[in-house]
Write a structure and sequence with these properties.
The chain is mostly helical. The protein contains 13 helices and two strands; from the N terminus they run αααααααααααβααβ. The chain has a two-stranded parallel ribbon with strand order 1-2.
Length: about 220
């Protein structure tokens, strides 16, 4: 890593949001490819102003950032982040941006949600679900599918909703939360999964058996902690 970048990169984790924002913007303007990895690592900042700055910086750094990174960012809950992702695609991957048009038109012309908008819808459902006192099996399945979404924020929202609902969470959903807690690339998702598990398991009841017990499978989640 280029030595003069090190203090700037370290500032990406500063407790004050404006310092993090300034660091991201500076790294984008400097144009050093070694800044790509540290920027990607903080794209899950809970502050949308930082996420916007990070996406903009990565957009300036060019084609070494995969197009898919910007495509999945179109599922962000903040309009300013989605706009930054669109600008980055237009700048670096205009062909990829053009390829998204059929999906967009499909969404506009019918009641079906196109693939690029699915994470945004899943995140919205997850956020609303967290305010409910209970959830139907169908809604729980929607939240479970959201745990598989490509965008970190969708996963985080689903984890938070499940942690608030707590009761009657299917066993396969709990297993997925355990996987995210241990293996998710996003630290924010790992923390959200850990918090959700703490809430669910604090009840010691309400774990729904979603199938016949397999040999050696006790259905006791505490064995996996």
């Amino acid at each position: 890593m280029t030595s003069f970048l090190e203090p700037i990169i370290a500032t990406l984790n500063h407790h004050a949001w404006h310092f993090r924002e300034d660091a991201a913007e500076t790294l984008g303007l400097l144009g050093q490819q070694t800044a790509i990895k540290p920027l990607i690592e903080v794209v899950d900042d809970k502050d949308s102003r930082i996420r916007k700055a990070v996406i903009q910086a990565l957009g300036r750094l060019g084609g070494d950032v995969p197009a898919e990174f910007f495509v999945v960012a179109l599922g962000d809950s903040a309009a300013q982040v989605r706009e930054a992702a669109l600008t980055a695609l237009q700048r670096n991957y205009p062909d990829v941006l053009y390829s998204l048009l059929p999906d967009t038109m499909k969404t506009l012309q019918s009641q079906e949600v196109g693939a690029i908008f699915t994470p945004l819808l899943q995140g919205f459902i997850a956020e609303i679900s967290g305010y409910l006192h209970s959830a139907s099996p169908r809604l729980l399945e929607v939240l479970t599918r959201a745990l598989e979404a490509p965008y970190w924020e969708t996963k985080m929202n689903a984890c938070q909703a499940l942690g608030k609902l707590r009761r009657n969470i299917p066993y396969h959903t709990i297993r997925r939360l355990l996987e995210l807690r241990q293996n998710a690339q996003s630290r924010t998702v790992r923390d959200a999964a850990d918090d959700a598990l703490a809430e669910i398991l604090s009840l010691e009841t309400g774990i729904e058996d979603d199938g016949p017990e397999e040999e050696g499978d006790s259905r006791t989640v505490f064995l996996y902690i």
